[in-house]
Design a protein that fits this description.
Layout: H1 2-13, E1 19-23, E2 33-39, E3 51-53, E4 56-57, E5 63-66, E6 98-101, E7 105-106, E8 109-112, E9 114-118, E10 123-129, H2 149-159, H3 163-177, E11 185-186, E12 189-190, E13 196-202, E14 208-215, E15 222-228, E16 233-237, E17 254-256, H4 262-266, H5 278-282, H6 294-310, E18 332-334, H7 341-348, E19 396-402, H8 411-414, E20 415-421, E21 430-433, H9 456-467, H10 471-500, H11 504-532, E22 533-534, E23 537-539, E24 547-548, H12 554-557, H13 575-578, E25 581-582, E26 588-589, H14 591-618
Antiparallel strand pairs: 1-2, 1-16, 2-19, 3-8, 4-7, 5-6, 8-9, 10-13, 11-12, 13-14, 14-15, 15-17, 16-18, 19-20, 20-21, 22-23, 23-24, 25-26
Family: Belongs to the peptidase C69 family. Secernin subfamily.
Transmembrane segments: 594-612
Pfam family, one: Peptidase_C69
């Protein structure tokens, strides 16, 4: 049991274990829709660049190349997706695994592993899920499938301006050409833990949809389903299918592949006598293979935290976890109060602070209340850590904001990608227009294995890493203060751009200037922290009194060997005179007893002397 539990934990830590939060436009304070994503990949080097793929026109009969996913650097080298993906320094071109017919025109979009947001505001966020099927790409001998989720999202952003179009386009392509997950292992050891995908998709028409896709029959083709999020609601995805019962006759709310029910029946995963439940039919139930509570809480605790934050009146139970065979948390919840962008920024940096699951508390948080819990190996032990929204291995995160449809703003003002490098618990979400054609050089520079001060990602990553020296004061005070001020500044700047109705050129220049300035300020913060926090000291000036030794907290000290030190590791040579002694009977005599006996002895001696003297006087006889 211990081995299996540890194995499951290790598998979870190595996938694209991301969190998605979708907020409909009628659930926000300003009427905009918000779609958030944290990319918590970890476990392998990644391409840190945010790429702008330009719009393009294509000749009749053209083909669109489809590539397999590569998580390292560079993620892609090609001449058909703009100059930022051109090969450099003797890089070789990526090899397509197949082609599909091209369309006459494709939209521009932001790309980092998955497609994010295109120039007409269509927005996508991703979260990997478990499933009962598995498939592989066509470039391996046992694979039949052309599309992974990365290329599906990019095709959707190239061709669509609505969530419905994106759902149908991705679903049709997956069924026709086959879907696979890049984390599916091989036939000898299938990766069911992460063989499927979930997306949330929002658009300028005010709709927000959730899309699920997995490999279909015989490790080929696909099965998919989609559900619209009701207006005024918030939805969340945490590496688990969230679509449950479906009314397929209601196409305004549900869409699906034609085989969505029949395939489940053929496999014995659904009885026609029961209501069809997508998650129950297709989600992989880890409890049948791995004893314990890993997946239920790995997914469920985040779902609870998000929904409880926006709808505390529902009093959802955090202990239930996500369950495959029955519903513990709803598909979406109506908000108790309108959600703001700032609230969502704060939620993305959450570690369950203020709850019974607060990761800044307890022995695991160390002496400095750090919410960081690194991945295994876990020495063949059962157990686990809480899985928060913000993680040490978050590569980037974003909030895709679409202004209210009624605002009638031009597209370059209506769509904003609020983008943060590294973990959001120590980063700033900066606004980029969905229509801008370029990004600051620092956002397209650098990789993980080389320390490069020209890289925006490295600036935020370095500050987050330095914060680990003393989390409670470095992140808890210095970084949070600068982060909050900078985030407030960015939100105010964005509001002024909308108010002033900047044109596309002005907006791009303003956004890039703000981002460049913030990255420069983050490097300044980094060097301040390096000078201020070193060797366990806090140094704020050159006078002796300006170097402080903060020490450790009492609650941590009492849990360590400090409280019992030195114990039996020290023997005082003067102990016989100060400390408990052994008498003839083997019982201990303390100092009070010893002093008492000494006083009694003295009294007896005085008394005896007195009696002797008295006797001598009474018995005296003179001889004279």
């Amino acid at each position: 049991m211990h081995v299996l539990t540890v194995l499951a934990t290790a598998l979870l830590s190595g996938v694209h274990a991301c969190t998605v939060i979708g907020v409909t436009h009628k659930a926000t304070a300003d009427g905009s829709s918000l779609l958030a994503h944290t990319d918590d990949a970890g476990g392998g080097a990644a391409d840190t660049r945010l790429i702008r793929v330009p719009a393009a026109n294509h000749e009749p009969g053209s083909k669109r190349a489809v590539y397999n996913f590569f998580g390292g650097y560079p993620r892609l080298t090609t001449k058909d997706r703009g100059p930022l993906y051109f090969p450099v320094d003797n890089q070789t071109l990526s090899t397509p695994i197949g082609y599909i017919p091209q369309v006459p025109h494709t939209f521009a979009y932001f790309d980092q592993d998955y497609g994010m947001m295109n120039e007409v505001q269509l927005s996508i966020a991703e979260s990997t899920c478990t499933a009962k099927t598995v498939g592989w790409s066509k470039d391996v001998p046992y694979g039949f499938n052309l599309f992974g989720i990365a290329e599906l999202t990019k095709v959707a952003l190239e061709r669509c301006d609505s969530a419905r179009c994106a759902v149908q386009t991705m679903g049709d392509l997956a069924v026709e050409y086959g879907f696979f997950s890049e984390d599916s292992g091989d036939p000898a050891k299938p990766g069911y833990m992460d063989s499927a995908e979930a997306l949330a998709i929002s658009d300028k028409y005010g709709e927000l949809w959730v899309f699920h896709v997995l490999t279909g029959p015989h490790n080929a083709s696909a099965v998919w389903a989609a559900q619209r999020v009701p207006d005024g609601h918030v939805t969340a995805i945490a590496n688990s299918f969230v679509i449950r019962e479906m009314n397929l006759s209601d196409t305004s709310t549900f869409l699906a592949s034609s085989n969505v029910i029949s395939f489940a029946q053929d496999m014995g995963w659904h009885s026609p006598d029961d209501p069809f439940d997508f998650a129950k039919a297709y989600a992989w139930d880890d409890l049948t293979t791995f004893p314990g509570k890993i997946l239920p809480l790995y997914a469920g605790r985040r779902l609870w935290r998000i929904m409880d934050t926006v709808a505390p009146s529902l009093q959802l139970d955090p202990r239930l976890g996500y369950q495959v065979n029955f519903t513990t948390y709803p598909f979406s919840v109506p908000v108790d109060a309108p959600v703001t962008l700032s609230q969502l920024v704060h939620l993305l940096g959450d570690h369950y602070e203020g709850t019974p699951f607060d990761m800044t508390q307890g022995l695991g948080a160390g002496p400095f209340h750090a919410p960081i819990r690194y991945d295994g190996p876990f020495q063949n032990m059962s157990g686990g850590w809480e899985r928060p929204i913000a993680m040490f291995r978050t590569m980037f995160s974003f909030i895709l904001q679409i202004q209210p449809p009624a605002a009638h703003l031009p597209s370059h003002l209506a769509g904003t990608a609020w983008y943060a490098q590294d973990s959001p618990h120590g980063s700033v979400f900066l606004p980029f227009s969905c229509a801008q054609s370029s990004l600051p050089l620092s956002y397209v520079t650098g990789n993980q294995s080389v320390f490069n001060t020209d890289s925006a990602w490295r600036a935020f990553n370095f500050v987050n890493q330095w914060s680990m020296l003393r989390w409670d004061v470095i992140n808890g005070q210095d970084v949070q203060e600068v982060m909050n001020k900078t985030q407030t500044r960015a939100i105010a700047a964005h509001a002024s751009w909308l108010r002033d109705r900047l044109n596309a050129t002005e907006l791009e220049a303003a956004a890039n200037a703000l981002a460049t300035d913030v990255v420069a300020s983050w490097w300044k913060l980094a060097w301040v922290l390096v000078g201020k926090y070193s060797g366990g000291y806090i140094t704020t000036g050159e006078k002796p009194a300006q170097m402080l030794t903060p020490g450790y907290s009492k609650e941590w000290l009492v849990q360590t060997e400090f409280a019992g030190w030195p114990g039996k590791t020290y023997m005082d040579p003067m102990a016989p005179y100060r400390y408990p002694q052994q008498n003839d009977k083997g019982t201990k005599s303390n100092a009070v007893e010893i002093v008492g006996f000494m006083v009694l002895g003295a009294l007896l001696a005085v008394g005896t002397h007195y009696l002797v003297q008295t006797t001598r006087r009474d018995g005296y006889t003179s001889f004279v």
